[in-house]
Write a structure and sequence with these properties.
It is built from six helices and 26 strands. It has about 475 residues and is an alpha/beta fold. The chain has three domains: about 90 residues, Sandwich (Immunoglobulin-like); about 270 residues, Metallo-dependent phosphatases (Purple Acid Phosphatase, chain A, domain 2, 4-Layer Sandwich); about 90 residues, Immunoglobulin-like. Strands 1, 2, 3, 4, 5, 25 and 26 form a seven-stranded mixed beta sheet that branches. Strand 16 and strand 17 form a beta hairpin. Helix 1 runs parallel beside helix 2. The radius of gyration is 24 Å and the shape is globular. The C terminus is likely disordered.
Protein backbone atom coordinates (compact mmCIF):
# COMPACT_ATOMS: atom_id res chain seq x y z
CA UNK A 1 0.00 0.00 0.00
CA UNK A 2 1.35 3.40 -0.95
CA UNK A 3 0.06 6.48 0.83
CA UNK A 4 1.42 9.97 1.26
CA UNK A 5 3.71 8.80 4.06
CA UNK A 6 3.91 5.01 3.99
CA UNK A 7 4.26 1.94 1.83
CA UNK A 8 3.96 -1.80 2.25
CA UNK A 9 6.47 -3.96 0.42
CA UNK A 10 5.29 -7.45 -0.51
CA UNK A 11 7.12 -10.38 -2.02
CA UNK A 12 6.72 -14.12 -2.27
CA UNK A 13 9.41 -16.79 -1.97
CA UNK A 14 9.36 -20.49 -2.75
CA UNK A 15 10.73 -21.46 0.67
CA UNK A 16 10.23 -20.13 4.18
CA UNK A 17 12.61 -17.19 4.58
CA UNK A 18 13.13 -14.02 6.56
CA UNK A 19 12.56 -10.61 4.97
CA UNK A 20 14.60 -7.42 4.75
CA UNK A 21 13.90 -4.20 2.84
CA UNK A 22 16.60 -1.63 2.20
CA UNK A 23 15.21 1.72 1.03
CA UNK A 24 15.90 5.43 0.82
CA UNK A 25 15.75 8.64 -1.20
CA UNK A 26 18.85 7.72 -3.18
CA UNK A 27 20.39 4.58 -4.59
CA UNK A 28 22.43 3.89 -1.47
CA UNK A 29 19.21 2.68 0.27
CA UNK A 30 20.62 3.07 3.78
CA UNK A 31 17.35 2.60 5.68
CA UNK A 32 16.66 -0.99 6.73
CA UNK A 33 13.51 -2.78 7.92
CA UNK A 34 13.67 -6.47 8.80
CA UNK A 35 11.04 -9.07 9.59
CA UNK A 36 12.65 -12.13 11.17
CA UNK A 37 9.51 -14.26 10.95
CA UNK A 38 9.99 -17.08 8.45
CA UNK A 39 7.32 -17.03 5.75
CA UNK A 40 6.70 -17.39 2.01
CA UNK A 41 4.50 -14.29 1.65
CA UNK A 42 6.29 -11.26 3.03
CA UNK A 43 4.76 -7.90 3.96
CA UNK A 44 7.09 -5.19 5.24
CA UNK A 45 5.84 -1.71 6.16
CA UNK A 46 7.81 1.46 5.45
CA UNK A 47 6.63 4.40 7.54
CA UNK A 48 7.33 8.13 7.95
CA UNK A 49 8.00 8.60 4.24
CA UNK A 50 7.98 11.98 2.52
CA UNK A 51 5.00 12.99 0.40
CA UNK A 52 5.31 12.70 -3.41
CA UNK A 53 8.90 11.46 -3.35
CA UNK A 54 10.77 8.80 -5.28
CA UNK A 55 11.98 6.01 -3.00
CA UNK A 56 14.50 3.41 -4.08
CA UNK A 57 14.39 -0.08 -2.63
CA UNK A 58 15.81 -3.58 -2.66
CA UNK A 59 14.57 -6.66 -0.84
CA UNK A 60 16.65 -9.46 0.62
CA UNK A 61 15.56 -12.98 1.53
CA UNK A 62 17.82 -15.86 2.53
CA UNK A 63 20.86 -14.05 1.19
CA UNK A 64 19.37 -13.25 -2.23
CA UNK A 65 19.06 -9.56 -3.12
CA UNK A 66 16.71 -8.06 -5.68
CA UNK A 67 17.77 -5.44 -8.23
CA UNK A 68 17.22 -1.80 -7.32
CA UNK A 69 13.75 -0.45 -8.04
CA UNK A 70 11.78 2.62 -7.04
CA UNK A 71 8.24 3.89 -6.43
CA UNK A 72 6.54 7.24 -5.83
CA UNK A 73 4.62 8.11 -2.71
CA UNK A 74 1.27 9.80 -3.20
CA UNK A 75 1.11 13.60 -3.53
CA UNK A 76 -1.10 15.82 -1.40
CA UNK A 77 -4.81 15.63 -2.13
CA UNK A 78 -5.49 17.74 -5.19
CA UNK A 79 -1.86 17.93 -6.33
CA UNK A 80 -0.97 16.50 -9.72
CA UNK A 81 -0.11 12.85 -10.24
CA UNK A 82 0.50 10.78 -13.34
CA UNK A 83 -1.77 7.83 -14.12
CA UNK A 84 -1.22 5.43 -17.01
CA UNK A 85 -4.14 3.53 -18.57
CA UNK A 86 -3.70 0.47 -20.78
CA UNK A 87 -6.07 -2.33 -21.77
CA UNK A 88 -6.69 -5.30 -24.05
CA UNK A 89 -3.12 -6.52 -24.36
CA UNK A 90 -4.12 -10.15 -24.91
CA UNK A 91 -2.68 -12.41 -27.65
CA UNK A 92 -4.76 -13.08 -30.76
CA UNK A 93 -4.04 -16.83 -30.99
CA UNK A 94 -3.68 -19.80 -28.65
CA UNK A 95 0.07 -19.12 -28.55
CA UNK A 96 0.47 -17.85 -24.97
CA UNK A 97 3.21 -15.38 -25.88
CA UNK A 98 2.07 -11.81 -25.30
CA UNK A 99 2.09 -9.30 -28.20
CA UNK A 100 5.38 -7.53 -28.86
CA UNK A 101 3.46 -4.23 -28.79
CA UNK A 102 2.50 -4.85 -25.16
CA UNK A 103 6.11 -5.58 -24.21
CA UNK A 104 7.24 -2.39 -25.93
CA UNK A 105 4.59 -0.27 -24.25
CA UNK A 106 5.49 -1.76 -20.86
CA UNK A 107 8.99 -0.33 -21.28
CA UNK A 108 7.53 3.02 -22.33
CA UNK A 109 5.24 3.05 -19.28
CA UNK A 110 8.15 2.40 -16.91
CA UNK A 111 10.01 5.31 -18.53
CA UNK A 112 6.97 7.54 -17.83
CA UNK A 113 7.51 7.04 -14.07
CA UNK A 114 3.79 7.05 -13.24
CA UNK A 115 2.35 7.12 -9.76
CA UNK A 116 -0.25 4.45 -10.57
CA UNK A 117 -1.29 2.26 -13.50
CA UNK A 118 -4.83 1.25 -14.50
CA UNK A 119 -5.36 -1.90 -16.62
CA UNK A 120 -8.83 -2.25 -18.12
CA UNK A 121 -8.94 -6.01 -18.74
CA UNK A 122 -8.40 -8.78 -21.31
CA UNK A 123 -4.93 -9.85 -20.24
CA UNK A 124 -4.91 -13.36 -21.76
CA UNK A 125 -6.66 -14.98 -24.71
CA UNK A 126 -8.72 -17.36 -22.61
CA UNK A 127 -8.99 -19.29 -19.37
CA UNK A 128 -9.73 -22.95 -20.01
CA UNK A 129 -10.24 -26.12 -17.99
CA UNK A 130 -6.55 -26.99 -18.46
CA UNK A 131 -4.68 -25.77 -15.40
CA UNK A 132 -1.22 -26.07 -16.96
CA UNK A 133 -2.28 -24.06 -20.02
CA UNK A 134 -3.79 -21.38 -17.81
CA UNK A 135 -0.63 -21.08 -15.74
CA UNK A 136 1.47 -20.68 -18.88
CA UNK A 137 -0.80 -18.01 -20.36
CA UNK A 138 -0.84 -15.95 -17.20
CA UNK A 139 2.90 -16.43 -16.69
CA UNK A 140 3.57 -14.85 -20.09
CA UNK A 141 1.34 -11.95 -19.06
CA UNK A 142 2.90 -11.40 -15.65
CA UNK A 143 6.41 -11.57 -17.08
CA UNK A 144 5.54 -8.26 -18.75
CA UNK A 145 3.07 -6.74 -16.30
CA UNK A 146 5.47 -7.32 -13.41
CA UNK A 147 8.07 -5.23 -15.22
CA UNK A 148 5.64 -2.34 -14.75
CA UNK A 149 4.67 -3.44 -11.27
CA UNK A 150 8.24 -3.12 -10.02
CA UNK A 151 7.75 0.64 -10.19
CA UNK A 152 4.06 1.48 -9.86
CA UNK A 153 1.01 -0.17 -8.33
CA UNK A 154 -1.32 -1.70 -10.92
CA UNK A 155 -5.08 -1.49 -10.43
CA UNK A 156 -6.95 -3.88 -12.70
CA UNK A 157 -10.46 -4.91 -13.67
CA UNK A 158 -11.58 -8.18 -15.23
CA UNK A 159 -12.02 -8.52 -18.98
CA UNK A 160 -14.25 -11.06 -20.69
CA UNK A 161 -11.21 -13.10 -21.79
CA UNK A 162 -9.91 -13.38 -18.22
CA UNK A 163 -12.75 -15.21 -16.48
CA UNK A 164 -13.09 -18.71 -17.91
CA UNK A 165 -16.80 -18.09 -18.48
CA UNK A 166 -16.74 -20.22 -21.64
CA UNK A 167 -16.13 -23.26 -19.43
CA UNK A 168 -19.44 -22.64 -17.68
CA UNK A 169 -17.94 -21.30 -14.47
CA UNK A 170 -15.68 -18.47 -13.38
CA UNK A 171 -12.03 -19.36 -12.86
CA UNK A 172 -10.74 -16.17 -11.27
CA UNK A 173 -7.84 -17.57 -9.25
CA UNK A 174 -5.37 -16.83 -12.05
CA UNK A 175 -6.48 -13.21 -12.29
CA UNK A 176 -6.27 -12.72 -8.53
CA UNK A 177 -2.84 -14.35 -8.35
CA UNK A 178 -1.48 -12.29 -11.25
CA UNK A 179 -2.19 -9.06 -9.42
CA UNK A 180 -1.26 -10.52 -6.03
CA UNK A 181 -4.53 -9.58 -4.42
CA UNK A 182 -4.97 -10.55 -0.81
CA UNK A 183 -7.41 -10.48 2.09
CA UNK A 184 -10.62 -11.64 0.40
CA UNK A 185 -10.10 -10.06 -3.01
CA UNK A 186 -13.18 -8.84 -4.84
CA UNK A 187 -13.85 -8.24 -8.53
CA UNK A 188 -15.26 -4.82 -7.66
CA UNK A 189 -13.80 -2.46 -5.11
CA UNK A 190 -12.82 1.17 -4.57
CA UNK A 191 -9.92 3.20 -3.24
CA UNK A 192 -8.78 6.80 -2.83
CA UNK A 193 -5.59 8.28 -4.23
CA UNK A 194 -4.42 11.89 -3.90
CA UNK A 195 -7.97 13.13 -3.46
CA UNK A 196 -9.48 11.09 -6.31
CA UNK A 197 -11.97 8.31 -5.61
CA UNK A 198 -11.57 5.28 -7.88
CA UNK A 199 -14.43 2.80 -8.33
CA UNK A 200 -13.44 -0.46 -10.04
CA UNK A 201 -16.35 -2.48 -11.45
CA UNK A 202 -16.90 -6.01 -12.74
CA UNK A 203 -18.62 -6.23 -16.14
CA UNK A 204 -18.11 -10.01 -16.33
CA UNK A 205 -20.44 -11.51 -13.75
CA UNK A 206 -21.52 -14.90 -15.07
CA UNK A 207 -24.84 -14.69 -16.87
CA UNK A 208 -24.98 -10.91 -16.48
CA UNK A 209 -22.08 -9.83 -18.66
CA UNK A 210 -21.92 -6.08 -19.39
CA UNK A 211 -24.63 -5.41 -16.81
CA UNK A 212 -24.28 -3.60 -13.49
CA UNK A 213 -27.27 -4.83 -11.52
CA UNK A 214 -28.26 -6.39 -8.20
CA UNK A 215 -25.72 -6.36 -5.38
CA UNK A 216 -23.06 -4.66 -7.49
CA UNK A 217 -25.39 -1.80 -8.44
CA UNK A 218 -26.42 -1.37 -4.80
CA UNK A 219 -22.76 -1.36 -3.79
CA UNK A 220 -21.98 1.18 -6.54
CA UNK A 221 -24.75 3.49 -5.33
CA UNK A 222 -23.40 3.36 -1.79
CA UNK A 223 -19.79 3.76 -2.90
CA UNK A 224 -20.49 6.93 -4.89
CA UNK A 225 -22.84 8.26 -2.24
CA UNK A 226 -20.43 7.90 0.67
CA UNK A 227 -17.19 9.19 -0.82
CA UNK A 228 -16.21 12.73 0.10
CA UNK A 229 -13.92 13.13 -2.91
CA UNK A 230 -14.87 15.80 -5.42
CA UNK A 231 -13.26 13.90 -8.31
CA UNK A 232 -14.49 10.39 -9.08
CA UNK A 233 -13.19 7.92 -11.67
CA UNK A 234 -14.99 4.69 -12.59
CA UNK A 235 -13.12 1.82 -14.27
CA UNK A 236 -14.85 -1.10 -16.03
CA UNK A 237 -13.92 -3.33 -18.96
CA UNK A 238 -16.98 -2.91 -21.19
CA UNK A 239 -17.94 0.59 -22.36
CA UNK A 240 -21.32 2.06 -21.61
CA UNK A 241 -21.31 3.33 -25.21
CA UNK A 242 -19.18 1.04 -27.42
CA UNK A 243 -18.09 1.72 -30.98
CA UNK A 244 -17.42 -1.87 -32.05
CA UNK A 245 -18.81 -4.45 -29.61
CA UNK A 246 -22.45 -3.55 -30.15
CA UNK A 247 -24.16 -6.86 -29.49
CA UNK A 248 -22.53 -7.78 -26.18
CA UNK A 249 -21.90 -4.29 -24.83
CA UNK A 250 -25.10 -2.54 -25.87
CA UNK A 251 -27.88 -4.66 -27.36
CA UNK A 252 -27.66 -7.25 -24.58
CA UNK A 253 -28.06 -4.58 -21.90
CA UNK A 254 -31.64 -3.43 -21.34
CA UNK A 255 -31.95 0.29 -22.04
CA UNK A 256 -33.39 0.93 -18.59
CA UNK A 257 -30.30 -0.58 -16.94
CA UNK A 258 -27.91 1.45 -19.06
CA UNK A 259 -29.89 4.62 -18.37
CA UNK A 260 -29.87 3.87 -14.63
CA UNK A 261 -26.07 3.58 -14.60
CA UNK A 262 -25.69 6.77 -16.66
CA UNK A 263 -28.07 8.59 -14.32
CA UNK A 264 -26.13 7.38 -11.28
CA UNK A 265 -22.88 8.70 -12.75
CA UNK A 266 -24.55 12.03 -13.48
CA UNK A 267 -26.09 12.26 -10.01
CA UNK A 268 -22.71 11.82 -8.35
CA UNK A 269 -20.68 13.87 -10.83
CA UNK A 270 -18.36 11.13 -12.03
CA UNK A 271 -15.49 12.86 -13.82
CA UNK A 272 -14.15 10.01 -15.93
CA UNK A 273 -15.33 6.57 -17.06
CA UNK A 274 -12.36 4.39 -18.07
CA UNK A 275 -13.09 1.32 -20.23
CA UNK A 276 -11.57 -1.09 -22.75
CA UNK A 277 -13.06 -4.01 -24.73
CA UNK A 278 -13.06 -2.18 -28.09
CA UNK A 279 -9.53 -2.48 -29.50
CA UNK A 280 -9.04 1.20 -30.28
CA UNK A 281 -8.94 4.59 -28.63
CA UNK A 282 -12.11 6.62 -28.36
CA UNK A 283 -13.42 9.47 -26.25
CA UNK A 284 -17.10 10.32 -25.85
CA UNK A 285 -18.87 12.69 -23.47
CA UNK A 286 -22.52 12.07 -22.55
CA UNK A 287 -24.31 14.57 -20.32
CA UNK A 288 -21.03 15.58 -18.73
CA UNK A 289 -19.69 12.05 -18.20
CA UNK A 290 -16.44 11.57 -20.14
CA UNK A 291 -15.95 7.98 -21.31
CA UNK A 292 -12.64 6.86 -22.75
CA UNK A 293 -12.07 3.51 -24.43
CA UNK A 294 -8.46 2.38 -24.19
CA UNK A 295 -8.19 -1.04 -25.82
CA UNK A 296 -4.98 -0.67 -27.81
CA UNK A 297 -2.64 -2.61 -25.53
CA UNK A 298 -1.65 -5.29 -28.06
CA UNK A 299 -4.76 -7.24 -29.09
CA UNK A 300 -5.83 -7.13 -32.79
CA UNK A 301 -6.91 -3.59 -33.58
CA UNK A 302 -10.35 -2.35 -34.61
CA UNK A 303 -10.41 0.67 -36.89
CA UNK A 304 -13.99 1.77 -37.38
CA UNK A 305 -14.46 3.84 -40.57
CA UNK A 306 -16.30 6.54 -38.62
CA UNK A 307 -14.49 6.75 -35.29
CA UNK A 308 -11.01 5.62 -36.27
CA UNK A 309 -8.74 5.21 -33.23
CA UNK A 310 -7.35 1.87 -34.39
CA UNK A 311 -3.78 2.23 -33.14
CA UNK A 312 -1.74 0.64 -30.36
CA UNK A 313 -1.49 2.98 -27.42
CA UNK A 314 -1.56 3.65 -23.73
CA UNK A 315 -3.08 6.73 -22.13
CA UNK A 316 -1.02 9.20 -20.13
CA UNK A 317 -3.33 10.98 -17.71
CA UNK A 318 -2.17 13.91 -15.62
CA UNK A 319 -4.63 14.46 -12.80
CA UNK A 320 -5.06 17.27 -10.30
CA UNK A 321 -7.94 19.02 -8.58
CA UNK A 322 -8.04 21.61 -11.35
CA UNK A 323 -7.64 19.50 -14.49
CA UNK A 324 -7.44 16.07 -16.09
CA UNK A 325 -5.22 15.94 -19.17
CA UNK A 326 -5.80 12.80 -21.27
CA UNK A 327 -3.22 11.90 -23.93
CA UNK A 328 -3.16 8.72 -26.03
CA UNK A 329 0.48 7.77 -26.71
CA UNK A 330 1.27 5.64 -29.77
CA UNK A 331 4.05 3.07 -30.15
CA UNK A 332 6.30 5.64 -31.83
CA UNK A 333 5.79 7.96 -28.84
CA UNK A 334 3.66 10.35 -30.88
CA UNK A 335 0.37 11.75 -29.62
CA UNK A 336 -2.70 10.02 -31.02
CA UNK A 337 -5.24 12.16 -29.19
CA UNK A 338 -5.44 14.79 -26.47
CA UNK A 339 -8.36 16.05 -24.41
CA UNK A 340 -8.51 18.11 -21.25
CA UNK A 341 -11.06 18.56 -18.50
CA UNK A 342 -12.72 20.84 -17.74
CA UNK A 343 -14.10 21.25 -21.26
CA UNK A 344 -15.54 24.68 -22.08
CA UNK A 345 -16.43 24.46 -25.77
CA UNK A 346 -19.76 24.05 -27.57
CA UNK A 347 -21.92 20.97 -27.13
CA UNK A 348 -20.55 17.89 -28.87
CA UNK A 349 -23.17 15.90 -30.78
CA UNK A 350 -22.45 12.23 -31.42
CA UNK A 351 -24.09 9.10 -32.73
CA UNK A 352 -23.32 5.70 -31.26
CA UNK A 353 -24.29 2.07 -31.46
CA UNK A 354 -23.81 1.39 -35.16
CA UNK A 355 -24.52 -2.27 -35.96
CA UNK A 356 -22.72 -4.03 -38.77
CA UNK A 357 -23.92 -3.29 -42.30
CA UNK A 358 -24.95 -0.09 -43.96
CA UNK A 359 -28.75 -0.04 -44.00
CA UNK A 360 -31.64 -0.07 -41.58
CA UNK A 361 -35.42 -0.34 -41.87
CA UNK A 362 -37.53 2.76 -42.21
CA UNK A 363 -38.65 3.99 -38.81
CA UNK A 364 -35.39 3.00 -37.08
CA UNK A 365 -34.61 5.52 -34.34
CA UNK A 366 -30.94 6.64 -34.30
CA UNK A 367 -29.10 7.06 -31.00
CA UNK A 368 -28.00 10.68 -30.65
CA UNK A 369 -25.87 11.72 -27.67
CA UNK A 370 -24.93 15.16 -26.35
CA UNK A 371 -21.88 16.11 -24.28
CA UNK A 372 -24.15 18.11 -21.99
CA UNK A 373 -27.89 18.40 -21.60
CA UNK A 374 -28.87 21.00 -24.24
CA UNK A 375 -30.81 24.10 -23.33
CA UNK A 376 -32.50 23.58 -26.72
CA UNK A 377 -32.24 20.90 -29.38
CA UNK A 378 -33.76 20.32 -32.80
CA UNK A 379 -33.79 17.51 -35.36
CA UNK A 380 -34.43 17.72 -39.09
CA UNK A 381 -34.68 14.92 -41.65
CA UNK A 382 -33.69 15.79 -45.22
CA UNK A 383 -33.86 19.57 -44.57
CA UNK A 384 -37.49 19.41 -43.47
CA UNK A 385 -38.83 21.57 -40.67
CA UNK A 386 -36.98 21.39 -37.33
CA UNK A 387 -38.58 19.15 -34.70
CA UNK A 388 -37.99 19.06 -30.95
CA UNK A 389 -38.27 15.26 -30.82
CA UNK A 390 -36.21 12.79 -32.84
CA UNK A 391 -38.18 10.50 -35.12
CA UNK A 392 -37.12 7.37 -36.98
CA UNK A 393 -35.85 7.10 -40.54
CA UNK A 394 -38.31 8.51 -43.10
CA UNK A 395 -40.66 6.07 -44.80
CA UNK A 396 -38.77 5.80 -48.08
CA UNK A 397 -35.82 3.73 -49.20
CA UNK A 398 -32.44 5.32 -49.88
CA UNK A 399 -30.17 7.88 -48.26
CA UNK A 400 -31.50 10.26 -45.63
CA UNK A 401 -29.67 13.09 -43.85
CA UNK A 402 -30.34 13.88 -40.22
CA UNK A 403 -29.34 17.35 -39.01
CA UNK A 404 -29.04 17.79 -35.25
CA UNK A 405 -28.79 21.18 -33.53
CA UNK A 406 -28.05 21.82 -29.84
CA UNK A 407 -27.67 24.99 -27.81
CA UNK A 408 -25.66 25.21 -24.59
CA UNK A 409 -26.22 27.46 -21.59
CA UNK A 410 -24.12 30.20 -23.20
CA UNK A 411 -26.49 30.30 -26.20
CA UNK A 412 -23.87 28.77 -28.50
CA UNK A 413 -25.34 26.42 -31.08
CA UNK A 414 -23.75 23.21 -32.38
CA UNK A 415 -24.68 21.36 -35.56
CA UNK A 416 -23.98 17.80 -36.71
CA UNK A 417 -25.16 15.90 -39.79
CA UNK A 418 -25.56 12.13 -40.16
CA UNK A 419 -26.41 10.04 -43.21
CA UNK A 420 -28.49 6.88 -43.00
CA UNK A 421 -29.60 4.44 -45.68
CA UNK A 422 -33.17 3.24 -45.21
CA UNK A 423 -34.74 0.06 -46.52
CA UNK A 424 -38.32 -1.14 -46.28
CA UNK A 425 -37.50 -4.79 -45.71
CA UNK A 426 -38.13 -6.48 -42.34
CA UNK A 427 -34.42 -6.87 -41.60
CA UNK A 428 -32.37 -6.40 -38.44
CA UNK A 429 -31.66 -2.69 -37.96
CA UNK A 430 -28.26 -1.57 -39.17
CA UNK A 431 -26.96 1.91 -39.61
CA UNK A 432 -24.27 3.84 -41.39
CA UNK A 433 -23.44 7.42 -40.49
CA UNK A 434 -21.15 10.02 -41.92
CA UNK A 435 -20.81 12.73 -39.26
CA UNK A 436 -19.45 16.17 -39.96
CA UNK A 437 -17.25 18.03 -37.52
CA UNK A 438 -19.20 19.65 -34.70
CA UNK A 439 -19.09 23.41 -35.21
CA UNK A 440 -20.63 26.17 -33.09
CA UNK A 441 -23.26 28.32 -34.76
CA UNK A 442 -25.37 31.20 -33.55
CA UNK A 443 -28.74 29.75 -34.52
CA UNK A 444 -30.03 26.40 -35.70
CA UNK A 445 -30.27 26.11 -39.51
CA UNK A 446 -32.10 22.91 -40.00
CA UNK A 447 13.58 -19.21 -12.18
CA UNK A 448 14.74 -18.22 -8.54
CA UNK A 449 15.71 -14.69 -9.38
CA UNK A 450 13.99 -12.00 -7.38
CA UNK A 451 11.33 -10.16 -9.39
CA UNK A 452 9.84 -7.06 -7.69
CA UNK A 453 6.57 -5.33 -8.51
CA UNK A 454 3.95 -3.05 -7.03
CA UNK A 455 0.35 -4.05 -6.58
CA UNK A 456 -2.83 -3.41 -4.71
CA UNK A 457 -4.92 -5.51 -2.37
CA UNK A 458 -8.47 -5.28 -1.11
CA UNK A 459 -9.04 -4.79 2.57
CA UNK A 460 -12.78 -4.96 2.06
CA UNK A 461 -15.24 -4.81 -0.79
CA UNK A 462 -15.61 -1.08 -0.29
CA UNK A 463 -11.97 -0.19 0.24
CA UNK A 464 -8.64 -0.96 -1.36
CA UNK A 465 -5.15 -0.03 -0.39
CA UNK A 466 -2.20 0.04 -2.72
CA UNK A 467 0.60 -2.32 -1.86
CA UNK A 468 4.11 -1.73 -3.06
CA UNK A 469 4.93 -5.24 -4.05
CA UNK A 470 8.62 -5.61 -4.01
CA UNK A 471 9.36 -9.13 -5.02
CA UNK A 472 7.80 -12.16 -6.61
CA UNK A 473 10.39 -14.87 -6.83
CA UNK A 474 8.01 -17.14 -8.66
CA UNK A 475 4.40 -17.38 -9.71
CA UNK A 476 2.36 -20.32 -8.52
CA UNK A 477 3.15 -23.40 -10.61
CA UNK A 478 0.60 -25.81 -9.20
Amino acid sequence: MVTQDSAVIFWRTEDLTNATVRYGLNESVMEIVTNSTLDKDHYVSLNELNMDEKYYYRVISNGTTSPLYHFLTAPADGDEFKMIIIGDNRPSTTDPVQPAEFAQMAQMIVAEQPHIVIMSGDFVLDVSENHADNLLRWEHFTNISDSIGHYAPIYAVLGNHDTGAKTGSLRLEYYFDSFVLYDEPSTYYSFDYAGVHFTMLDSEQLGFEARIIGDQFTWLENDLETTSSEMKFVVIHRPLYPVIHIQDAYNDVPAAEREAVQALYEEHNVSLLITGHDHCFNRLTVNGIVQIISGGGGAPLYNHPTWKGGYYHYVRTNVSASHVNITAIKLDDSVGYNYQLPYTGPIEIEHRIIPSGSTNPVGTLPVILFSEVPAEKYFSWDSDENQTELTGLPNSNGEHTLDVYACNSDSVWSHESFMFIATGGPTTPTTTTTPTTTTPTTTPTGDGAIDPLILFGSLSIAGVVIVVVAVIWFRRKS
